[in-house]
Amino acid sequence: MKPKISVMITCANAQKTLSAACESVMWADEIIIVDSGSTDQTPQIAQTYATKYVVEPWRGYTGQKQFGCSLCNNEWVFVLDSDEVVSPKLANAITALTPEDLDKHDLFWVSRKNYVFGKYVRAWDPDWQSRLIHKDRVTWVEHALHEGRKGQSPDREGKLNGRLLHKPVGSVEFADYFCGSRMDKRLLPVALEMYAKGKRCYPWDLVLRPALAFGKFYFIKLGFLSGTFGLMMAQKASASTQLKYAALWYVQKFENK
């Protein structure tokens, strides 16, 4: 018997991308959409596709997705964002899974292919994401800017062929990736999380780490093959690293006294 798999999508003001996300998972046995309070046409689009559509105030990255998974009728859930698309190859890999395959695993990782301004960000590959999960056999791991999951043991985690496409459709604003105020809102939570994990900022971190980040994304990850766009993304990585460690220095000097 073919295993039943739910797809759970979280969204907010996703009218530009939600249709493509839903169209890519029409193979699912049910589509659960959790909206954290859209003010555009997202509700109308969601109700066209959803088996169940729920409006739920934002609980945080982990809490929102845990809540959405709790609404799913099936044990196996594919967790999808509203600006992502499941490629046909990945869809085939998921639907080809047998009950025996699923019995051996708690979750499966998929490689996400990221786009910025409609351009493929080579330097961000392979960007593995834990997305196909058994909702009762995984542990949720909360991070400052995203959520994660892990199985009961590494040997119960698998990988699927095919790609998850991130932001392949919909217009993207410059501010989505290069807005100083947007970055500022994220810096302190990230720095607090780093501090809690025992990380500290030393003078050489502010000098070496930004340069190393640039080198990694531009040279090692082959960003230079993408021309000016690759240079911009490497510079963004360098600037983000410098600001992240500057925020960590602030936390260790003033926030934890």
Give an overview in words.
By secondary structure, the protein is of the alpha/beta class. The protein folds into two domains: 5-166, Spore Coat Polysaccharide Biosynthesis Protein SpsA, Chain A, CATH 3.90.550.10; 175-255, no CATH class. The protein has nine helices and eleven strands. It has helices at 18-23, 42-49, 61-70, 88-95, 99-103, 175-178, 180-196, 203-220, 227-255; strands spanning 5-11, 30-35, 52-55, 76-81, 84-86, 107-116, 119-120, 128-134, 139-142, 147-150, 157-166. Strands 1, 2, 3, 4, 5, 6, 7, 8 and 11 form a nine-stranded mixed β-sheet that branches. The chain has a two-stranded antiparallel ribbon with strand order 9-10. Helix 7 crosses helix 9 and helix 8 packs antiparallel against helix 9. The longest helix has 29 residues, at 227-255. The model has no long low-confidence stretch (mean pLDDT 93).
